[in-house]
Each structure stands twice: as structure tokens, then as C-alpha cells.
Design brief:
By secondary structure, the chain is α+β, with helices and mostly antiparallel strands. It is built from 17 helices and 16 strands. Strands 8-9-10-13-12-11 form a 6-stranded antiparallel beta barrel. It has a 3-stranded antiparallel sheet with strand order 5-7-6. Helix 5 packs across helix 6, helix 5 runs parallel beside helix 7 and helix 9 packs across helix 10.
Length: 469
């Protein structure tokens, strides 16, 4: 004669609250006590103490992995930022296994999840970092994450820069080869390539046009036994990971101060060699480098010759400033869509080009350019992104006024400044004319960052110390 059940699994306990999905959500969200009789097993006392109405009210129905993936993709931005692949249904399975979502049923690889928990995850500011940490990527997604063509990604793998961390079986159908095993790669390893391989010109790789030979094809492959760096190489990795200069001497000090610094795996006592993977792991653990959060963005306020204006954003910008007054400055970056590219090109299409009222880009102060800004190139990558390039004569570039009133005026007087001059002065000999100065008034021309005469660039001009034009 059997007695009452004393231990319940999730399926057996589900009857108390209206379904397996409801019970799993209640258990995963803490609405019911943790399993007290074994893994995913509860005692009769716990099951009987549960309020079925509260559990049913808390869960209004799960959603599939595909719908959850679409919601997380939307949270990354519309359109998707550069170097961000779409979130796939299989990613939801990885997020469940990481404990970020609760499994409510369905296939373990493509689980059903709670929509409100997905919404909460989508609102997290560190969502991109969480995806990088817990969701591996297939080859096509990996190429998108690195911002290169698929053929370039294949070279990254051949060179030994990354190795698979797992695999997945994908059914392409009988007409397309059936079930295929696809390698999976760590998104964190991919994000770190700009840091761990500083000798590679990744910007040039990303800008290689379709049909061109990969710039990576001429490099020498590495193996775990040969992938080593000298002390100076450790410094270059640290410099790339923090955007600050780290020399060999600093690395020597780290080695003295930290007993856990990686031991040499080759070289000599004078020139020791270290395993690159060990060095990267140590630098990450000691906060000497950080995982790149993603591409930065440049903000442009543009005014056309006809008076029309617009605000634009260029993702993953590259700003090249000439060192000579006769040179040309260049700015390139990815635009959100073709309409933005068309609008920017239209503003710059006049006879005198466009004016950049204000340009802010990572690593540079606010700049302004008085006319003759041109769109010189539009390039579509193999992954579909559109990159646009702007150019202008370096002599027209200046420092944007901190008050937004145009370009900083910076003149060099042709005669010695008198005692009655009330203009703001610079150590370089230049000054910012003010209207109430009896000697200079507002007559000194705005020569921007370049001094008149020899075309010397002034390195002492600061936006916060100058008057605006």
C-alpha cells in the first residue's frame, strides 16, 4: 500500500501551479524555495506550501528562443551597430546555461523563456559585454564581430590567432549539404584581437574592398609553441589595451612587483620570451588591459553652402590630421544607412563644399572646419556596411569654440604687442583678439591652428582659453 509522494520533480510539481513552464519559472525566479530534496527535486512540504495563483499570475506565458533573440537584437540598436552580429536563437540557449535566463521548456538549444526577464536583460547597459562573454559565434558572425570580410576571418583562423571553443551542428537541408559541424569562437577573443595583435593594421583589413587579396595572407602563421612576445611586445599589448604608452621598463617593473607574472617560455635571461596567451590572461586579471567595448563614434554638425545643416554619426571613425598646413585631413567611418550618406554627400556637394561646425571624435578635441569639406569615397564592405570618407585642406581646420559659436580665432600680431593690449595671449606669441582692444580690435584674421607665414601648427591652443569667432 503506497503512501503519499514525498519528493517531486519539476514535472510532478507542475500540477500545483498549472504547467511545467510555470513551475520552472517560479523555481528559477525564486518565487518558490530552492530545490531541497536533490537537483530539481522538492519535498512535499515545499510543494504544498506554494501559492498556485501567485505562480500563475507571475508567468503570463513563455516566448520562443527566436522571439527572445529578436528582442535582444533590437536592444543592441536599430540599425545594428558596426561589428555587432544579430542575436540568434541558439544564443538564448547559451544565456540560459549562463544563468541569465530561466529555462521554461522546449529544446535545450533553443529554449522557451520568460518575456519579462528577456526585457530586463535587454535593458542592461552591459548587454553587449554579456553577449561577448557567454555567446560563442560561428564563422560568419565572427567575421561581423571583427568587422572584416569572411575571407579575412578565414585567414585569422589559419594564422592561429584564434581557436574554436566548441562546435554546433547546423542542418542546411539535403540540397545544401545536410548536417554540417560548424566551429564556434569566443566573442571575447575576437573583441581582443585589436589588443592582442597590435602589429596587425586592423583598420586597413576592415577597409579592404571586396575582391581584393586579404592583407592577412602575407603574414606568418603562429602555433601555441611559437606564439611568444618579448618584454617590449608585452608593453605594446598593454598600450593597445589601454590606449596609453607602456614601455619595456614598465613591464620589467611589473615582473619584479608581481610574483604571478608569467614565467618565460623561451629566449634568454636578457631577452626573455613569454607565451602570448599567458600574458593576455595576466594583463586582463590585473586590469592592465580592458576588453574593447565596441567601436566609438564621431559626431558631426555639418552646414552646406546653401545654409542647410544636419547632424550625423560615423561609427568606428578614423581621423587622420595632417602635420603640414599644405596637407589634407581625412575622416572616415561607417554610416547608419544609405539615406544618411546621401544627405551628408548632398551638403558637401556645393562649389565651396560644406562647413563642419563641430566634429567630435574619440581621441581628439572638438574640431571645426571652415568650408571645402568633401565626401571623397563611399565603400561598401563585404558584410554590407557602408563606409564614407570626408576630406578637407588642413589649413582650414581649427578648434571649435566651447560655446558653439564657430571656430576659435587665433592671430599672430605682425608688430610687438603694446602694454595697452587686453587680448588673451598665448605662449607661442599668438593672441585671441577682442573687440574692445584699442590695438587689435577684431581685425586679426582667424588663422585657426596654423600661424601665418611659415605655416607652423600651434600646439598650445586650448579650446577652453580662447574666445570664439
Amino acid at each position: 500500500m503506497g503512501g503519499r509522494r514525498e519528493v517531486y520533480d519539476s514535472a510532478q510539481a507542475a500540477g500545483a501551479c498549472g504547467g511545467v513552464a510555470a513551475w520552472r519559472w517560479a523555481a528559477g525566479s525564486g518565487l518558490v524555495p530552492a530545490a531541497d530534496a536533490g537537483p530539481w527535486q522538492w519535498s512535499r512540504a515545499v510543494v504544498e506550501a506554494v501559492d498556485p495563483e501567485a505562480v500563475r499570475a507571475a508567468l503570463r506565458g513563455p516566448i520562443g528562443a527566436g522571439a527572445a533573440a529578436d528582442r535582444l537584437t533590437e536592444a543592441l540598436g536599430v540599425p545594428l551597430p558596426p561589428m555587432r552580429p544579430r542575436v540568434t536563437a541558439s544564443a538564448i540557449g547559451h544565456l540560459v546555461r549562463a544563468g541569465l535566463l530561466v529555462y521554461l521548456g522546449g529544446e535545450t538549444e533553443f529554449p522557451d523563456v520568460y518575456p519579462e526577464q528577456v526585457a530586463a536583460l535587454a535593458r542592461r547597459r552591459d548587454l553587449p559585454a554579456l553577449l561577448d562573454q557567454y555567446v560563442p559565434l560561428g564563422p560568419d558572425q565572427a567575421a561581423t564581430r571583427l568587422g572584416v570580410r569572411r575571407t579575412d576571418w578565414d585567414w585569422v583562423v589559419r594564422l592561429g590567432y584564434v581557436a574554436p571553443v566548441g562546435s554546433a551542428e547546423v542542418d542546411y537541408g539535403r540540397a545544401h549539404g545536410g548536417v554540417t559541424t560548424v566551429p564556434l569562437y569566443s566573442a571575447r577573443d575576437i573583441a581582443l584581437l585589436d589588443v592582442t595583435r597590435p602589429s596587425v593594421d586592423w583598420r586597413a583589413v576592415r577597409e579592404t574592398r571586396p575582391g581584393r587579396r586579404s592583407l592577412l595572407a602575407g603574414l606568418t602563421p603562429v602555433t601555441p609553441d611559437t606564439d611568444r612576445v618579448l618584454l617590449a611586445g608585452v608593453g605594446r599589448i598593454a598600450s593597445a589595451g589601454r590606449s596609453v604608452g607602456v614601455g619595456r621598463a614598465a613591464v620589467v617593473n611589473w615582473r619584479r612587483q608581481h610574483p604571478d607574472f608569467p614565467a618565460p617560455t623561451g629566449g634568454t635571461d636578457v631577452h626573455p620570451e613569454f607565451d602570448r596567451a599567458d600574458v593576455v590572461a595576466w594583463l586582463l586579471a590585473h586590469d592592465k588591459i580592458i576588453i574593447p567595448a565596441g567601436a566609438g563614434a564621431a559626431s558631426l554638425l555639418v552646414r552646406g553652402s546653401g545654409g542647410a545643416s544636419g547632424r550625423f554619426r560615423l561609427d568606428a571613425p578614423w581621423l587622420g590630421l595632417a602635420d603640414d598646413i599644405e596637407g589634407t585631413d581625412r575622416l572616415s567611418g561607417w554610416v547608419a544607412d544609405d539615406a544618411d550618406a546621401d544627405a551628408l554627400a548632398a551638403l558637401a556637394a556645393g562649389y565651396v563644399g560644406a562647413t563642419l561646425t563641430r566634429l567630435t571624435a574619440p581621441g581628439a578635441g572638438s574640431l571645426a572646419v571652415l568650408g571645402d569639406v568633401r565626401v571623397t569615397d563611399r565603400f561598401r564592405s563585404g558584410s554590407g556596411g557602408l563606409r564614407i570618407t570626408l576630406e578637407w585642406p588642413a589649413r582650414l581646420r581649427g578648434t571649435a569654440s566651447p560655446t558653439g559659436g564657430g571656430v576659435v580665432r587665433h592671430g599672430v600680431p605682425q608688430t610687438r604687442t603694446g602694454e595697452d593690449c587686453v587680448c588673451a595671449r598665448h605662449g607661442c606669441g599668438g593672441l585671441d583678439p577682442v573687440l574692445w582692444c584699442d590695438e587689435h580690435g577684431g581685425e586679426a584674421p582667424p588663422v585657426l591652428e596654423w600661424h601665418t607665414g611659415g605655416g607652423l601648427r600651434c600646439g598650445q591652443l586650448a579650446p577652453g582659453t580662447a574666445a570664439s569667432a
